[in-house]
From TrEMBL:
This is BD-FAE-like domain-containing protein. It comes from the Archaea. Residues 47-257 form the BD-FAE-like domain. It comes from Methanolapillus millepedarum. Keywords: Hydrolase. The keyword Hydrolase applies.
Length: 305
């Protein structure tokens, strides 16, 4: 249990730091915030909306970025989107940060996808009240949130609000990759946690041995790499070579897949000296600056104000 909690803490800490990095790169001011808005029936079906100004003072509609928090699908909170909001609001974008149900014996990855879709339906039906454009939207997240953002954008072909742009910050790409078990946490004996977590996510009953050799077709179907195609929304990927939670073999698998997809607009930003926490300073500072510049250029291109 102690090792399991350590893993969760590491992921949540990384998600928080990743969000703060975007704020630090962008400057930003305190946004107008509308908190704890319910978009569905579950207690976890809530969202926070951050606007460049109060809805009462706004005269035109603004494009929005939907942020999905990380935390191994069993932790984390929409409050982690505040860092993104301060940076993006100052550049004229709304940010909608959503909570979703955590994985459990009663909730699997499909249920979480249903939550994301419910949030999108709420935005489509109620965005006008907050001066949010509903003709198209951007979506992204950190770690597990990046996985969910990609999975939704690639697998939902007719979402309530069309997805124009995707950002994945260290989000798992291929859950069937045996490299998931090639990390210090697994080597220290926490294999059981990975096995349990992935089975909960995919709603499967694979053995640990099957996972370690990649004999897991249903885990592949719970992965963004399975759904990405030539018509998928433009995507920016940011990953660390030294990541011990999302192995770099995940990135290599996705790079191979998308290299054969003519028409899929994408860009990879590889942080050679970073792990799951992408460093904005030191030897990776230049790639961090390029990454954040590309995010704003992508928003300007695919979701112009």
């Amino acid at each position: 249990m102690k090792k399991k909690n350590l893993f969760i803490i590491l992921v949540v800490a990384v998600v928080f730091i990743s969000a703060v990095l975007l704020l630090l790169m962008s400057g930003g001011k305190n946004p107008a915030t509308y908190s704890d808005i319910h978009y569905g029936p579950d207690a976890r079906n809530t969202m926070d909306i951050y606007l460049p100004d109060s809805a009462e003072n706004m005269t035109g509609d603004v494009p929005a970025f939907v942020y999905i928090h990380g935390g191994s699908w069993i932790e984390g909170s929409k409050e982690e989107g505040e860092g993104y909001a301060k940076g993006l609001n100052s550049n004229g974008y709304a940010v909608i940060s959503i909570n979703y149900r955590y994985l459990s014996d009663d909730v699997d990855g499909c249920d979480i996808m249903d939550d994301v879709d419910l949030a999108m339906k709420w935005i489509q039906e109620n965005g006008d009240d907050y001066h949010i454009r509903t003709d198209k939207i951007a979506v992204g997240g950190d770690s597990a949130g990046g996985h969910l953002a990609m999975l939704y954008a690639y697998s939902y072909k007719n979402p309530p609000v069309p997805i124009a742009f995707v950002v994945s910050n260290v989000g798992p790409l291929d859950l069937s990759d045996p490299g998931v078990f090639s990390n210090p946490y697994a080597e220290e004996g926490t294999d059981y946690f990975f096995w349990e977590l992935l089975n909960m996510l995919a709603g499967t009953n694979y053995t640990m041995e099957e996972m370690k050799v990649g004999a897991t077709p249903d885990l592949l179907k719970a992965s963004p790499i399975y759904y990405v195609d030539a018509n998928s929304p433009p995507t920016i990927f940011a990953y660390g070579v030294k990541d011990e939670l999302v192995p770099f073999s995940n990135v290599e698998r996705m790079q191979e897949k998308v290299s054969n997809l003519s028409g899929f607009e994408h860009e990879f930003f590889i942080f050679e000296n970073s792990g799951h926490e992408l460093n904005k300073e030191g030897e990776d500072q230049s790639v961090a600056e390029e990454y954040y510049r590309a995010v704003f250029e992508g928003l300007g291109r695919y979701l112009p104000k």
